[in-house]
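Exercise 3.2. Students should predict the tertiary structure of the chain below and write it as structure tokens, then compare their answer with the key that follows.

Predict this chain's 3D structure.
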Amino acid sequence: MSMTSHEFWTVVHGLILGSIYLLAFAGGFAGLWSLRKEFVTEAGIVERMKRMYWGVWTMVVAVWLTVIVGTYVVYPWYRAPIPESPRSMLLANPSKSAWHSFGMEWKEHVAWLAPILATAVAYIVVRYGRELADKPQIRKAALVLFVLAFAAATVAGLFGAFINKAAPIV
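Answer key:
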């Protein structure tokens, strides 16, 4: 099996970095959700926070790399001003043009919310640390930001997979 460099970077962007982000989200969400005094001892909170710091920062790095690679490596190939580019192929077919007009617009703009919101969650975790177990309002706010970041990334990932199926970057 061989891949072109374009296919390789598409896999790095979506499958590898995107998957790392989504897996890190699951662990981070579970960790934040269960970070409560009634669920965990003081020693357990200290131990959990070490994993939480590593997990949220892994997630932040992965999501920033995903968006940066997508924007500056993969996206220019999508928009290349040639008739064979995926963008040209989608716009040339009226039944597929919505994949560009809505799907790629989401990926171009709304997907940037994922790293911004994930970074905000990481900041909250670092800033409040063990206090998150005592401050449910702040923990819940972090969870809301976490879910919004996940939703933005998930929708962008789904659009990316469908767009690549309809008009692959080769």
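Discussion points: Residues 34 and 127 are 18 Å apart (CA to CA). The chain has a mean pLDDT of 89.
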